[in-house]
Each structure stands twice: as C-alpha cells, then as structure tokens.
Amino acid sequence: MTRPSARTRPGLLWALPATVFFAAFAVLPLVLVAVLSFTRWNGLGAPSLAGTANWTALLHDPVMLKSLWLSALLTALGVLVQTPVSLLLGVWAAGRQRNRAILSAVYFVPLLLSATAVSVLWRALLDPNFGLPAEAPWLFGDGNLLGSRSGAIGVLAFVGAWQWTPLHTLLYQGGARAIPAVLYQAAEVDGAGRVRQFWHVTLPQLRNTVVTSTMLMVVGGLTTFDTVLILTQGGPGTDTTISAYYMYQQGFKSFDFGGASAIALVLVVVATLISLVLVRLSGYDAMAGTAEGI
Q1: CATH number where 102 lies
Q2: Residues 8-19, buried b or exposed e (16+ Cβ, 10 A)?
Q3: Overall pTM surpassing 0.70 (yes/no)
Q4: pLDDT at 127 over 80
Q5: Is residue 81 part of a domain?
Q6: What is the pLDDT of residues 129-165, one digit of tens each?
Q7: Which residue numbers delimit the ABC transmembrane type-1 domain (predicted)?
Q8: CA–CA distance, 33 with 264 (Å, rounded to integer)
Q9: How many independent structural domains does the chain possess?
C-alpha cells in the first residue's frame, strides 16, 4: 500500500522544466561572468587570461568603493521610505473602505510603467527651466535638483519609491487579507482598538511579508541602473555612480568587460549575503505554519 506522503508528493520530473530554465538563464550566465572576471576582454576577439588583475584593480579603485557605499545608501533610503508607506497603504487597501478599489487602481498606475518611462517623465517634470522647479521656485530654490549631490540622491530615492511602492503595497494587501478574521475578533473582545490590533495582530502576522518585501527592495536597490542612467548619468561627478551604473561604464564605455564582470559578481555576492542575513535574523526560514506568521 502506498504511503499518503508518497501519493501527495510530486515527482522530480515536475521540477525538471524549472530546473533547466534556471540553469540555462541564471546559473550558466553567472558561471560565465565569473570566468570572464579573470580575463581581459574589450568585447572583440577572444578574451585573454588576466589572472586576478581585475580583482586587484577593483579592490584599489576608489570609484568602486564609493559606488558600493552609494548603492547601500540608496537601498537603505528605499527600504526606510517604502516599507512604512507600502505597509500602511497595503493594510488600508485590504479593508472595505468606500471607493477603495478605485483609489487602489489609480495608485497602482506607476507600477504599470517601465522604469525608463518613469525616469523620462520625472526628468521632464524636474527640468529647472520648464518643469515644476521653474513654476515653484519658493519650493525648489534654484531648481537644479540634479546639480547637487544631496539633491540628486534625493531625487533617485523619490523616483524609485514613487514607482515601486505600489508593488510592495500589493504584497502587504495580499498578506493582510490572508490574516484570519478570528484574530481580530479575539483582540476586539479583549478590548483592543484599531491601533493595538495593528501592532499586536496585523504587524506580527505580516512578518513573512515584511521580509519578502525587504529582500525585493534590497535586490532592486543594488541592481538599479536605468533610473540613474536617464536622470543623473552618475553625476554630478561621480556622486550618484552606483555599482550597477559603474559596471555599465566599465563595460560599455571603457570596453573593459573583464572588470565589469568582476563588478557584476560583487553585486551578486553582496545581494545574496544580505538576503541570507535577512532570512536568518528574521527567522523566516524557521516558519513552519501555512498561515502568515504562524
């Protein structure tokens, strides 16, 4: 007689298509990038072995070190801004308020646009001569927000939050709707109001969602490229040259694909390590329940 677990557990063949796809489009390119990081190649002809020259140059490159710090800064700003806003909006959107569906649909519009379209839109809106700064000098000062280090970093953080907060709001909305209503009923019986229910019921139940959302923000922040390319091009100077943009500069402007591959590998390692630390510290990997946070 077949055991119940054997009947319900899918066979390995079910995982074969996904495994082949992942190996072909994730593992193999990553291995090739790792190999290329030990070569010298300008994009033409055959790569030549360079040993650890690319890695040695990277360790002593002040622009690379600065780009890692800027990537971390923008990522941290994204998490600090997007998490509370998307959490509160997601919990609100999970309710049954009047006109909730219409307002939610309007709010999700930025999510439907590409990062390139969003960057072009905000570059036009923030133009110091014809955009919002020209119409409201009392708010924007001289209007050249992208001309200063703090202004450029602030714009990048704002534009990223404007586009991607709706995605994380959607995650929190789904997580909030999955919370059993009996928990709120029990809290109400105990005399807990809306604020206490949020802190003691909603937030603990959304722990897994918070971890998932944060990991997506971290990976997205470390790999941001097109927004920087269109809005600041790494400027002023190198004040917004994050690692992903510096990788582009090394590969497609300096034609140093070996060095660019080393930068790419550093980004992969950093993003992976941060994700693993988040999973370990949050206890996400120890969650055994099928319900959110249980």
Answers
A1: 1.10.3720.10
A2: eeeeeeeeeeee
A3: yes
A4: yes
A5: yes
A6: 888 888 888 888 887 889 899 999 999 999 999 999 9
A7: 68-278
A8: 8
A9: 1
